[in-house]
Amino acid sequence: MEPCRALRRGYHPRDDFYDRLLAWGESPPGRRSPSSAGRDGHNRRVAYRYLFEQLVRRELRQKYKGSALGVLWYLINPLVLMGAYYLMFGLIFKLDDIPDYPLFLMVGLVVWIFFSQSVLSAAPSLLEQGALVRKARFPRATIPGAVVSVQLVTFLMILALLAVVTIAIRGTLDAALLLLPLILACLYAFTLGFALAVSILHAYFRDVAPILSAALLPWFFISPIFFRIDSITSRDAYRNLLEWGNPMAPFITAIRDIVYGGVVPEVAVLAYVAAAAVLMLLGGKWLFDRMQDELAVVV
After folding, report:
1. Taking the domains of the chain in order of start, what are their residue ranges?
2. Residues 211, 213, 217, 222: what is their CA dihedral angle, to the nearest 10 degrees?
C-alpha cells in the first residue's frame, strides 16, 4: 500500500505492520463482529503507539543524520547556549548576587529551552508531515506529540546532569526531589497542550509560527531565568504580574526550588502549575480535535 511507503521512509525495514495499521483504519466497522471490532480496536491502539515511538525515534535520528556526533547535538546545542547566556548575564552583566549563579541560571534556561524549542518545532510539524497526513489515517496529534517528546528526552538528560551537580554541591539528597516527577509531568502536559494548539493553528494560518517566534523573545526576558522576581521590583502589582501573569514563571520557580534550592515549592506555585497543565492540555486538545477534520485538505 502506497501510504505505508511514506510511513516506512527512514526506518529499518519491517513487515506489513503499517499496511495492517492502515487497513484497520480504512476497513468498514459495520462488517465486523463485536469481538472482532474489539480485537481490531486493541490492535489499532498498539499500532498507533508503535507509530508514535517510531516518529520519536525518526525525529531523533534524522535531524543530525550523517553528522559525526549525531544525536549528541541535541545535548551540545543547549549546553553551548547556556554557556553563552552565563557569560553574558553571569559575568559581564551580572544582575543579582546569587550563590552558585551558573546553576541558578542553567536550571531556568533548561526549562525555557524545553518549552520554546518544543512549541517552535511543533508549529510547522503538521505541514512538514503533510504527505503522511494526507495518505494515512492515524491520530494526527501524534505528530506534534512526538516533537515535544523528542525535546523532553534532551531536557531530562540535561536536567539530570544539573540535578547531580547541585546535589553534589549541597551535599544532601532532599525529600523535595520526590515532587520533581510530578512537576515535570505538569510541564510536559502544559507544553503538549500549547504545541497541539499552535500546530493546528499554523496548519490553517501560516502566520502563527512567525508570530510565535517573535512573541517568545520578550517572553524569554520577562521570565525569571536570569533573576529572582523579588530583586527586580518591590512593587506588588509588577511582582504579581511577573510571577502569576507569566504561565512559565511558576514552572521555572517550582523546578528551580526543587533542583537548585532543595526545597518544596509553595502551595500556590504547585496549585498554579497543576491547574495550568490541565487547562492547557484540555484546551489544546479541544482546539486540535475541533479543527483537524479538514487537516488533510489544508496541509
Report:
1. 1-62, 68-298
2. 70
